[in-house]
Q: What sequence folds into this?
């Protein structure tokens, strides 16, 4: 056990987060996401919800300030089944760590899949919300 590390962060996830460099991206994927097909670096967190995992990761993970927005979501293909509260919840969490953060960049499904295949890792969760997948981009920790 380590002090200061949220319990939801598994040893495998902690290792990946620490190995990532500036500009690397990690996907927090819902239970229906085809992560195993898209990326060879998969971390299983099936008992976790994306929102809880995102909150824990943001305690350790600097967001990239050199891009317009360091988070990306999948553009919903069917607005009639889209629950905007999921995106708004993520945005509120991100604001706690970066108050001026802009709205998510949105990518069409297959663009999101391509981006996910190029990500450093994909974290598979138990989240069942449609269009709840999110990509976050790692920034740097500045010396004082």
A:
């Amino acid at each position: 056990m380590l002090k200061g590390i949220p319990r939801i962060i598994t040893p495998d996830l902690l290792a990946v987060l620490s190995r990532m460099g500036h500009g690397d991206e990690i996907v927090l994927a819902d239970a229906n996401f085809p992560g195993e097909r898209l990326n060879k670096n998969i971390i299983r967190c099936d008992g976790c919800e994306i929102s809880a995992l995102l909150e824990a990761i943001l305690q350790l993970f600097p967001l990239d300030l050199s891009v317009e927005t360091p988070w990306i979501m999948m553009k919903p293909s069917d607005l009639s089944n889209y629950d905007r509260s999921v995106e708004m919840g993520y945005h509120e969490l991100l604001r706690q760590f970066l108050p001026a953060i802009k709205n998510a960049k949105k990518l069409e499904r297959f663009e999101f899949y391509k981006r996910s295949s190029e990500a450093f890792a994909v974290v598979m969760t138990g989240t069942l919300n449609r269009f709840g997948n999110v990509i976050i981009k790692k920034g740097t920790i500045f010396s004082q």
